[in-house]
Write a structure and sequence with these properties.
The chain is 40% helix and 18% strand. α2 crosses α7, α3 crosses α4 and α16 runs parallel beside α18. The chain has 24 helices and 25 strands.
Amino acid sequence: MLNSNNSQENKKVDALLVQLSANPYFDMLSSYSIGQLGLYYLAEYADRFGCLVKVKYYNSFDEVSMLLPELIRNTSCRIIGFYVDSDNIWSLRALMPKLYQCCPNINIIIGGPQVTGDPHGTMQLIPNVTCGVIGEGEVPFLKLLQSDTLNEDVLNCIDGLIYNSTNGLITTKPQKQDPNIDEFGYPKREKYCLDPNKVTFSQLITGRGCMGQCAFCYEGGKEHTNLRVRNVDSCLEEIDYLVDTYGVKYINIVDDTFILNRKRTEEFCNRLINKYNGSIKWYCEARADILSKNIDILPLLKKAGLVKIQLGGESGCQEILDAYKKGVTIKQLEFVTQKIVDAGIPYIYANFIIGGAFETESTFNRTLNFAKKLMRTAPGHVEVSSSVFTPTPGSPMYNNPEEYGLKIIDKRSIRGANCSFVFAETEQLNQYKIWQLRNRFNNEIKNEYASLLDDISLEQLKNIFYLSTKFSIDTPWSNLLKSKAHYRNYIEPLVRGGFYSFSEIPIDNIFSAIPLRTTHLSSDGVAFYRIKRSGEYVKNSNLENALITLSAGKLTFLDIFNMIKSNPAFITSRTDILDECLSIYREFEREFSVVWKKI
């Protein structure tokens, strides 16, 4: 049943916009969903012209066929819009007849990447739809709202639509895109959201379109680029809004490529520094070819709060990158990765496509080895993932797969979630081999993460735990490290504050500091053993045993030292007992076994 406490769901509205998340794995692992920001842009633009629009989120476990008709009745809306992608299209296909049966007078509008990329195929697949919006939705959606009725005559006069007519599917004239996207403003999320406790808003759009021509992407299928960017004033105003309204500390800039215009990027960073001085962290996507020509901008990005940057990896083979029309080189990817690390930016993300253009087992092995090489270049910094090639409607590889050595065996991706199953074969790899190679890639990359833990610098370890603890920014590195008691129990206290490593305590203050062991000891029934961070069990010497057991967070080092000094078993004519104690604590530091508290 609907939440009776949410008065917004019982208020008359002009239209409802629905985001249906169809991936059960995402929903099971997350207590919230990321709001589909495009829907809120539609609501914001409609609001400017006096139309009241609300946005509703459902996931795959909700009884949508029961809940949605009730919501439609409670809000008395006459138009409902759905965001459609390659995953939820099947849920919508099943939902529409039931919805139309319950609400026969409702006008159903669909839009989103699936409609834009494959308008005819999407309309044929989803029944009972009034029309689909091709491309950006603000203007055509508003015109639909402002129309008293949505008959064929009305629909035919609105640019950017596809609709069912008595003569079959009709596509109206393409929209003329407004080059000034600041005219759309930015959405005040809380004004339109019906799920304030379920949906989170950490994303920011500063531009639309892409300069790239990647063959696997819808943007690559366009005859011309349509990159349009917002004014920096508007972007900073939206960041202020997100911080003030939602307490956002970490922002995802979701532009296809953020760092293109150097002057604009510098202005954005300097303004962000002046206002927040790096306290707001952010993520963005960038191109290695652009960054390689602007390496000196990296320190400014870091100072402005950039903590994670995505570089399109895609492949470790130059010939495949060229086939993808990526416009980047392997050398640029390596060069930029190292420079990002040198600038102190904590994370670089790279994804690699398995089973794409002209893929063979040999090219796969080269890609796997290249991914590992990037990880070894910067342990703890480079995050690697993989996706299976998915034919994206409207992309060159979808339209002409044979030109890329591909055979599409599942054009509608009905056998799995986008990028997570095999939908095409290559000339040398069948679907079973591609799936085997994808699993091998993931397993070997997982092992690579584990093998590099001891190579991560202490500074980066602190970065990893700091970003996780303070900003909830997690990666495979942080998830793995938090599962290891040595790292978690040693680094987290240093990051949270109040505790220090041995080398951070001035030697003049060491006697007043309190040591605290961070790991459990083991025993064989005769003696205590300590466990090194490598997992090795080491039998303590008598002095090591005394120091590690007394370092329980209750005594100062002076207390401990006096107890040891007064014990005849530890006094020899050959050893300076203080130097030996300090030497052992240095070893404990290397093993992440003891942290220190200043008094």
